[in-house]
Amino acid sequence: MDIDNTTLRWYIIHTYATYETKVKQSLENIIEQNNLEEFIVDIRIPMVQEVQEKDGKRKIKEVKKYPSYVFVKAKLTEQIRYFITSTKGVTGFVGPGGDPKALTDDETIRMGLEKLDVEEFAIKEGDEIEIVSGVLTTLTGIVQNVLLDKEKVKVVITVAGRNSIVELGFNQVKKVEPLN
After folding, report:
1. What is the pLDDT of residue 4?
2. Spatial distance between the Cα atoms of 180 and 171, rounded to a whole number of angstroms
3. For residue 119, what pLDDT is reported?
4. What CA–CA distance (Å, rounded) separates 89 from 117?
5. Which of 28, 129, 140, 166 has the CA that lies 20 to 30 A from 178?
6. Angle, to 10 degrees, between the axis of helix 20-34 and the axis of helix 78-85?
7. Is there a contact between 73 and 10 (Cβ–Cβ < 8 Å)?
8. Strands of 69-74's sheet, edge to edge?
9. Do residues 166 and 136 touch, judged by C-beta distance below 8 A?
10. pTM for the whole structure
């Protein structure tokens, strides 16, 4: 079991379909009623904007990025685990055999739960990178420009024998370490 009660980590909770908001509200009530603010510090339902067309009109709507999942940043003790799993609408934690598995720092950044510290961004012009999320996942390229203020990099990639420049977020790339 991956329970670490000394540090705050992100965990994913699986819920019944459409119960995400109810679960979040119930957990917020449990935190308040039991003074658990130091054990569960953040609960999120990541949303994305989606353009929908209806009757020739375009409308931007917010939709759940990960339907049936709620993200919780917690110091996970047995008591906190019990409070979470006994909440109405929760089917369990995401992890092997339903045991909680904390997300890695890279995963929390890629999923948009945490921001990458710009000061720690170690990629610079000329570095080879691998794209780790989005439609171009697994492609490699060379960094042409680092846009610190926008938290983006411009990368030259080769697709079908042609070079293209793409702009990617810091959380979409990782540096390719040279082989020794």
Report:
1. 47
2. 26
3. 60
4. 35
5. 166
6. 140
7. yes
8. 40-44, 69-74, 9-15, 90-93
9. yes
10. 0.66
**Which amino acid does the sequence have at 78?**
E
Q: In this structure, is the dihedral angle defined by the CA atoms of residues 160, 162, 163 and 167, taken in order, positive or negative?
A: negative
Q: What is the DSSP string of the chain?
A: ----SSS-EEEEEEE-TT-HHHHHHHHHHHHHHHT-TTTEEEEE--EEEEEEEETTEEEEEEEESSTTEEEEEE---HHHHHHHHTSTTEEEESSGGG---PPPHHHHHHTTSS---GGG----TT-EEEE-SSTTTT-EEEEEEEEGGGTEEEEEEEETTEEEEEEEEGGGEEEPPPP-
164 bridge partner residues: 157
Our CA angle for 80, 82, 84, nearest 5°, is: 70
Closest CA to 59 of 50, 70, 67: 50
Q: Are 87 and 47 in contact (CB under 8 A)?
A: no
